[in-house]
Amino acid sequence: MYPLLTFIAEENYILALLVFVIAAATDGLDGYLARVMDWQTELGKILDPIADKVLLIGTVLILWMNSYIPFFVMAVFVIRDFIIIMGAAFHMTVYETAAPNPNAFGKITTFVHIGYLAGIFVDIIFGLNLMSLMVDICVACVTLVSLFLYGLNWSKLTAQLHRE
């Protein structure tokens, strides 16, 4: 994680892209193997999403600080992840439930975030100007829809737990 942020801070975007892609790919592989090989643990269900959020939010924050990402995109990323972490912690503590399983749209959102950030790096490295305000708005909208769906799922779960 720190080498990625250091490479960005030093404007070594090729190495930053390489580290980012490797981190994202190995995280995906880790999750896939855990599910397929039945290596999942309760601790892993908690730590893996937090590690994802640290990777993505750390990258978003430093790219925003270097003016490569608009404030509203950074804010939506951070607010979504903060609310998801607090919501999960609330449910696990108050209702004594297991770590929540991510929904399909949450996984799609993570993939969109990874693609967006990789695209930012490619834009910086090659000066392609592929990223635009429209892309930023689309990514922010996907992120907000994901947050809404998590909230809807938690509301349903809360109602179900109150009925029991």
TrEMBL record:
Keywords: Lipid biosynthesis, Lipid metabolism, Membrane, Phospholipid biosynthesis, Phospholipid metabolism, Transferase, Transmembrane, Transmembrane helix. The chain crosses the membrane at residues 12-34, 46-65, 104-126, 132-152. This is CDP-diacylglycerol--glycerol-3-phosphate 3-phosphatidyltransferase. Coiled coil: none annotated. It holds the Pfam family CDP-OH_P_transf. Belongs to the CDP-alcohol phosphatidyltransferase class-I family. Its main location: membrane. GO terms for cellular component: membrane. GO terms for biological process: glycerophospholipid biosynthetic process. It comes from SAR86 cluster bacterium SAR86E. Pathway: Phospholipid metabolism; phosphatidylglycerol biosynthesis; phosphatidylglycerol from CDP-diacylglycerol: step 1/2. GO terms for molecular function: CDP-diacylglycerol-glycerol-3-phosphate 3-phosphatidyltransferase activity. Its EC number is 2.7.8.5.
